[in-house]
Amino acid sequence: MAKSETADPKVARPQVRARKIKILATLGPASRSPAMIAKLLRAGADAFRVNMSHGDHATHAETIAAIRAAEKDFGRPIPILCDLQGPKLRVGLFAGGKAVIRHGSHFTLDRDKTPGDDTRVELPHPELFGVLKKGERLLIDDGKLRLRVIRADAEAILCSAEVGGPISDRKGVNVPDAVVPVPAMTEKDRRDLAFAVEHGADWIALSFVQRPEDVAEARRLMGGYGALIAKIEKPAAIQRLEEIVELSDGIMVARGDLGVELNPEEVPPLQKHIVEITRRTGKPVIVATQMLESMIESPAPTRAEVSDVANAVYDGADAVMLSAETAAGAWPVEAVTIMHRIAAQVEADPGYAARVHFTQVRPDPTTADALAQACATIAETVAVAGIIVFTGSGSTARRVARERPAVPMLVLTPSLKAARRIGLLWGAHAVQTRDIGSFEEMIAKGKRMALRHGFGVAGAKLIALAGVPFGTPGSTNLLHVVTLAGDELKGHSD
């Protein structure tokens, strides 16, 4: 049991957070109990990740059910992201289970199933033998061993060990210099995807994306259910990043494998580039992996980790993600708490607004985009408490979030599905409510919900954004500034 899970938690409805960036926490053995999920929500978690690489479907079903129960207890939509494992390239088996590759020696990867030794081992991935070329790299065990191809043919790949060391059965292999002719989805991923759709996952993250075609195939298999996040963890994906972003509903900067396959100094500027490209589309972008890695074992992060989280906040990412820190670490609640505190402190920095707008976002030549931009401009000019967005699909909310307005956004939608997906958007607090039928009803409901959810007090001004005729997708064409009177809540339920 995690050290954090000692007190008997009492569920309490959290207040609307002033913090705009979202925290996505991975659930696992240390955190998937109902009690811990409640603690993580109170500590600052906004959404949960279910890692399909670990555990079975029965366990994942229990985890999802626990999140949905917490959703009812806390009275707000909670996004669930199911993260597919993707193909894993691995070496075969060794005689005795392990060997040592000597620095500077030759080492061969071949198709012989005989257990390996210090000079060779099976590589049970025939598709690699046809694509690797002289001079390309093979990284083994998360880059601890580095091989350089000397010669490759249909049966064997002869390499020079630039960095040797101990190696054991089934260690992972990364191929950074070639597009690997392997589909992004394995049979396991297809089963996991079907499970995620069946259990109502709001977001599905696709691993091992190399080409736009990988995203298109996953979207076809999803059949219109859920929203798709492409994980950028392969150098090949960078070459076609804008096409991948265009086909996806969101992007994850998966720095784990990206950091293995690239030189360490290349990752920070790439992270900023990926965040910038994605932000321009208005789609959510998540910065993930090893953000507070030391907190798997320690109750406090390193100063470098604090700076890493802060930089993602300054860059304007929609969400930051915790992986093993909350899934298997000893301090899951503390990890969420410190991430919340870092983000809140950065967003309170007087220089934050200038930094988060360093990425120039140009609206498309549409009425909806022009009004979304106007919301942000009004919020900078007039003292408003928030922006009320009426939306059916969530597209209007994405447009407003893209502008990174100075005030939080209350998103009202009749669709629970949309409300859950919106929960990953920067600055958005989504509420499911009955649809509206007239301008007067819109204004009255907007005021009631703003008061009910803490978006201002009597006398406060808010911006309302909607589309007429109501209920028509893509019709955003109305912007109105309202003033709260304070008595709108009387005699009404939504």
Q: Please state the second-level CATH architecture of the largest domain.
A: Alpha-Beta Barrel
Task: Estimate nothing, just give the exact number of structural domains.
Answer: 3
Described by the principal axes of the CA atoms, the overall outline is elongated
User: Can you give the mean pLDDT?
Assistant: 92
Notable characteristics:
3 domains, 494 residues, elongated, disordered N terminus, M1 Pyruvate Kinase, Domain 3, Pyruvate Kinase, Chain: A, domain 1, alpha/beta, 8-stranded parallel barrel, 6-stranded mixed beta sheet, TIM Barrel
List strands and helices in order, with pairings.
Layout: E1 22-27, H1 34-43, E2 47-51, H2 57-74, E3 80-83, E4 98-101, E5 106-110, E6 120-122, H3 126-129, E7 137-140, E8 145-152, E9 156-163, E10 165-168, E11 173-174, H4 187-198, E12 203-206, H5 212-222, E13 227-232, H6 235-239, H7 241-247, E14 250-254, H8 255-261, H9 267-281, E15 285-288, H10 303-314, E16 319-322, H11 324-327, H12 332-347, H13 352-356, H14 367-381, E17 384-390, H15 395-402, E18 409-413, H16 416-422, E19 428-432, H17 439-452, E20 461-467, E21 476-483
Helix pairs in contact: 1-12, 5-7, 7-9, 10-12, 14-15
